[in-house]
Amino acid sequence: MTDERGVLRRIAWRELFPWLIIFRTFRLSISPTLLLVATLAVFLSGIGWRAGAYIFLTKDERNAAVPGSPLVPGSFLLARTPRAVAKYLPAEESSAIEGYSQLAEPFYRVFRREMTLRSAAYYVFVSLWSLAIWAFAGGIITRRAVVEFGVEETPSFLESVRFAARRYLWYLLAPLYPLSGVLLLMLPVAGLGFIAWLHDFGFVLAGILWIFVILAGVIAAWLLAGLLFGWPLMWGTISAEREGDAFEAFSRSFSYVYGKPLHYLFYAVVASLFGALCWAVAHYTAEIIIEFGFWAFSWGAGAEQAARAQNLANLGQLELLFGGMDSDNQIARFGGILMALSIGLVRLIETGFVFSFFWCVASAIYLLLRQDVDDKELDEIYIPAETPSPHGPLTTPATPAPEPTPAPVPTSDVAPQSDQRLVDTVHVPPQ
Known about the structure:
17 helices; mainly alpha
């Protein structure tokens, strides 16, 4: 017999390196259903940005603050990234970083002291609007991701939608738990500021009580730091756990952030590097799709007319629906607007991929941190039992047959031969 001791037949890479599930996020994030959900959420978020600008901002503030899409230009949050962390992150755009920063940016801008009352109201509005949209869309994506990464099964789209709908309130409230604590800490300090606004004596009173302001700042720093890094994990908690409420999402996310910060940093760096590659693939795929149309168009219309069509199809031309330039032919301009709508759809799907990838990779990181901190396997995912149909079974149940009446028990010492079967079941006491 051949001695096969010590022969290595197979290496379970996923057991040795569980973080390899991060590299499965790209294939999941480009699935049509998740792309559809993310793209629709991006579209609805953009409506909120525009509507909030017309409600709260003046025309000058509107032009400065409202982006052309839900992606906020010039992220203040990324600009404040510590150098010790930024040196490990990719210099180019990454789906993981962009998705994180764009969702957190409006909340971050609320805490800037330079904000006017109008601007603060605007960013509070768009923050809550975005949270309301992504509480449902992110719930669908993270539920699909944790089930696929954990038990390696693909839930149906309707199952994910129903799950997210049942827990929508928890998805919505989870990030507001620490924010409400910060708000409560802010109110008495704001009261001191109001007294100082009324009279200079408020500065003296503030100086006397400032040690308590420092203590409140320590608690606020703990809440804000945990929220800043932990909020992407909250949706994964609600999507994966049996309880899955807002309090569990708050406690688990803070526990993982403060319990394994280096593990979290490692997973975030890997996700960011991989996200940069995925973003490049998505971006240049969209560029090829758009450029192919004008290249093929040029073979029939010529290079000059193709350049004119590209200029007319600029996304900025959509504003001409409400009037504008008169230099171009009205018919050609209308055709350019129609082309711009199609190109805008491609750009919208490209942006939707950013958020689809972000929620998928956030779900993967949550499962990894849960394994590190709580020693729970990746496949420990809550799967609700199937709900029976409210109409009952389609077939009529058969009526059970009546039980036969037992024969009378004989009174003699010896049971008759024909009733021997009763001796095995009935005890007859001796006379």
